[in-house]
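ENTRY TYPE: paired fold submission
RECORD: A
CONTENT: sequence, then structure tokens
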Amino acid sequence: MKLSFQTLGFLLILSFIHSQAAELKYTFVVQETNYTRLCSTKSLLTVNGLFPGPTITARRGDTVIVDVINRGDHNITIHWHGVKQPRYPWSDGPEFVTQCPIQPGANFSQRVLLSDEEGTLWWHAHSDWSRATIHGLFVILPRLGTTYPFRQPDAEVPVVLGEWWQSDIQTVFENFVDGGGDPANSDALTINGQPGDLYNCSALGTTRIKVDQGKTYLLRMVNAAMNNLIFLEIANHTLTVVGSDGAYTKPLISDYITISPGQTLDLLLEANQRNNRYYMAAKLFNGQPASRFDNTTTTAIVEYSGNYTPSNPPVFPDLPAFNDRNASFNFTARLRSLASAEHPIDVPLKIKKTLFYTLSINAIPCAANQTCEGPRGTARFAASINNITFDMPSTSILGAYYRGINNGVYGDDFPDVPPLKFNYTQASGLNASLRLPEVATEVTMLKHNETVELVFQGTNLVAGVDHPMHLHGHSFYVVGAGFGNYKRSTDSLNYNLVDPPHMQTIAVPQNGWTAIRFKADNPGVWFMHCHLERHVSWGMGMVFIVRNGKASNARVLPPPPDMPPC
């Protein structure tokens, strides 16, 4: 068979790209480490003794081997947030979905397969609430011979937004689960692990970002906080968004940013103001008055080099109000994919499967002769998708599916539409009977390469709040969003099918809706859940199983020999 010059050229390009891909190795030792914050010292679970944890740096298409060694006192799993792991869900990480946990004294060599991701992602624990301290950046550089689709920055700066509890986080988690109410608030917010000088005993450790007049800096940012979206701003400066969730965006210039838990942003900061010191400040967004939250502000200092008399204190930004839901929604709604010849997109236009999922806070009555810390002291909080509260199994769903031995581990009857239909965003007066969910472990089966449209609909059951929804194993296009009840006949007419942002985590607005589209081209078992930890702990999660395709290269790869036992 003769091959055309075009085909030969394409094969040569593929061969060149493959030859560039590297295999990198990291070692993650999970261990207890003492840290001092807010005037006191405590032991916390870390990776390699670092809080935040170490940054992984690779290039597009590389393979990263991470040897995870658990020398801590608790079970652990690690998730590579935003990495699609083509055909290899075994290293994805969510506890009891794709693996059983790495037990104390054990280890697991996780194979992380990069594909089309480029930009900033992150990694974090995916068991209990360990991700409060076990997390770090995952930087994916362009392939050798290519570069950023924007001017080369003069330097890159990590910005990891997080939280700090004075109490042990495992104790916070256990008290939260036992009580059935809201969790204890954090005692501080952090930037790169430091609360900043607005908190007691924190001035000396305040994160400082040193800049030179006229230079441009790429901020690689993640919201690693547990339970809230975050507003962030730098006094007297604008930020230009150039990427989100490992994909490039059209440049978006803004005075402030909103970032969801689990979301990453690539931001350009131009040092174009007079020499001085300027606060970078961040605080939580909370649009639900009934929800407790940490209403404090963390700071870092952007400090220009040179000889000058700085402002004391540094210049402070004018952040949006903590409950400004329009500021939160409008920032995210302005994101657009770059959609260039070098970085094309492929929005599904012909949809084979249409799903409509309600996202609700629910209430489950307390056990007999008990009081709970949930609604009116007579119920425990729960959360659901399509009125199903996800019941986490005690063994791996992936293992059961792959071996064809279910034995009641999961069911495959997750509803495509809500079993209960009502005025989802009605301000008050919703029937209390609607609050009670079904507790089950149900999955949705998707055919290989099936094109999916999924509309998330927030509800006002118990309390309407934002829900940052994260899908493992796939990126999706955010084609529409709005407040109120979704109405297909009109809302679908306003979809952006030209340059919608390509994301893995999207905040569904309080009492609103968001429409996403994706192609189920990655066979395996993939968790989808709210990235507010209290919500996923209450059961706001479900599982997609993408079936194998017909070709040998469209099937789940075999498991590694050192999968943690159940």
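RECORD: B
CONTENT: sequence, then structure tokens
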Amino acid sequence: MKKLVFIAFAGIVMLFHGFCSSEQAPKYIFLHQATSAPPISYYDYIIIGGGTAGCPLAATLSQNATVLLLERGGSPYGNPNITDLSAFGRALSDLSHTSPSQRFISEDGVINARARVLGGGSCLNAGFYTRAGARYVDSAGWDGALTNESYRWVEKVVAFEPPIKQWQCAVRDGLLEAGVNPYNGFTYDHLFGTKVGGTIFDGDGQRHTAADLLEYANPEGITVMLHASVHKILFRVKEKMKPFAHGVVFRDAAGNKHRAYLNHGPKNEIIVSAGALGSPQLLMLSGLGPKDHLKAHNITVVLDQPLVGQGMSDNPMNAIFVPSPSPVEVSLIQVVGITHFGSYIEAASGENFAGSPQQRDFGMFSPKIGQLSTVPPKQRTPEALSRAIDSLQALDPSVFRGGFILEKVMGPISTGHLELKTKNPNDNPVITFNYFKDPQDLQRCVDGLKVIETIIESKAFTKFRYDYLSIPILLNMTANAPVNLLPRHANVSTSLEQFCKDTVMTIWHYHGGCQVGKVVDSDYRVLGVDALRVIDGSTFNNSPGTNPQATVMMLGRYMGVKILKERLESFKTN
């Protein structure tokens, strides 16, 4: 019997999904470095965060108002580590202070990342594009017609149908054999069963992101400042009146301070779109949050709001590596199985998993990006990462022939919280997600892994598996890699429950911290203050669909249309 030399798993998928635009960068005349900003400026709307929600929101509002969009990172254009499918993972492994990705480690011990670039997480992820389900839209209270119209507005620029080749076809057919029916073909819609979803990579392997949606903007109505780090939202506070947000303080790359204020007008607003970490963090730094926590950091309390930073969730992801005797194509996430029990099944594959053999980067499965499921979360130290990276580099590239089949827990039900670590907005806050704290999340993981096992043993997958590699052996390989040789004797595999806990990773779909009904109302206005909204994934109670990026972009457009409508109606009445 032929021995298989391979390595099983040093890291896994970035599913926040998306890349930044094509080879020819758009000529945005409204893009500027914050060092060129005047000391004081005035706008109708000030949007903090040029990410997945902030870009479509700013583009929409600019049609009938003056908009300042403040982004703490730089431009994605001209950076092949962002734009090229073949370079997937390199931006995530860049730990420099100029990187478009900023690494953080939750208190749970899971290594994670947040975006620091115009276009946000859509510049870093694996590109999967899919809408939220109809039930999710209804529960959010969104207008169905405007929601669909807003999705289509996004899709005209950033969404494509991916080519489906042999590995992804085998996953698709294996899902159907496993009973994840019906087959819904290619669709952006969230439907129970198996489907092929969209991608933000075009046919040339170029990423298109939320930054591309700025092509809709009115160049006369928008100013985008890059490397503009907002330190504080300014409030006017008068007795017996709600605090009124009227300006922001931001610093440029040289550390110079600038102030931007709202023009006088009843509908002018500051809108925070800084993401699930940045938005609650900035509210706290500006004096909105749990008063005792703010006082401990010597922050003046504007409003005691104990729910800011609460309800933080990150959908847990677990996967099984399947070495293949046959060559497989390079693929990111394309096929998904949407189960009735609350787990989503996806897969990715390829020699070096989108990394070049010459560069030996190992792409989306590299411990360089922090995905190290081979040791339990609390043991994922920098030293452990270094050992894994060194072990990988010593192996022959052929050992990576195969792919990963993964499951993501929907929701999730388990929640945690966010707290400030320092008063510097560029520092990561302290985050706890409490993966699998709720037993239903753990059960969904177990059930998802059972479906994966069925896929691996399906007739459709025969070509892509070694007969002598049993499921217990694959589980042990996935949990104990890097290894140089297949063990002569398989260890007794751990329970699936323990496998879930020990090999949990992020899928980069974390959300919460400024949730609807707790921190903001149904129109995303911050409760207890005036002229301030939060519009991004921090407002979500659950992650929408199998991947949130389509819905976050949709929400930016959706709320931009609603806000402009309110603005026009106010002009008519006045």
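NOTES ON RECORD B: The two ends are 83 Å apart (CA to CA). The first strand starts at residue 31 and ends at 33.
STATUS: closed
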